[in-house]
Here is the input.
Amino acid sequence: EAQVTQNPRYLITVTGKKLTVTCSQNMNHEYMSWYRQDPGLGLRQIYYSMNVEVTDKGDVPEGYKVSRKEKRNFPLILESPSPNQTSLYFCASSYDQDLGTDTQYFGPGTRLTVL
Amino acid sequence: AQTVTQSQPEMSVQEAETVTLSCTYDTSESNYYLFWYKQPPSRQMILVIRQEAYKQQNATENRFSVNFQKAAKSFSLKISDSQLGDTAMYFCAFMKARRGAQKLVFGQGTRLTINP
Here is the structure.
């Protein structure tokens, strides 16, 4: 089954304790990205990657890191989480548009609470 | 920068009625895509419908259709014969039609409730 998976689905942590949210897709997609969803703000892009070893900042990158060592995986790293990073996080993936499809597939979301 | 605005934070209709969700956007791009996503209580983001800006014909997917007004930069979603399962948060989103520019810019969302 074609899908984007995220782990964990729920996480409660404390300020300053490093954490990683994993994202994996099995569709051989080139493009992957992370979004955060906050009430009244919709979803905003944090980071994206156009291919292996190619990453760039989105609209709200402060406090986050990413890596793309393999095509299928795109982990989101919070080196020192703070309460303002409490949010719902989504990973998404898609083909490059040159291949004819641009629909983004979303993971199930990760609810993060930083105390 | 592109912006997407959904002016209706919440809407509520009776089952089987027709409801229209509004969305306006701002861009200087000539070619782009517009989307409506549905987010039910499960939080999963589900693509409802998409529209290519170069196409004049409005997209339709079963009970879902859009009214795309390019000059007015308006992209509303009409749900016909609404069902209880349509209860969800709905997001309008914009994406440039350029290689490597696959960022979705989302509106604030409209919470739609279908009442029995």
Observations:
- Chain B touches chain A at residues 4, 9, 33, 42-45, 47, 50, 91, 93, 95, 97-100, 102-104, 106-109 (CB under 8 Å).
- The longest strand of chain B covers residues 88-96.
- Residues 6 and 23 of chain B are 5 Å apart (CA to CA).
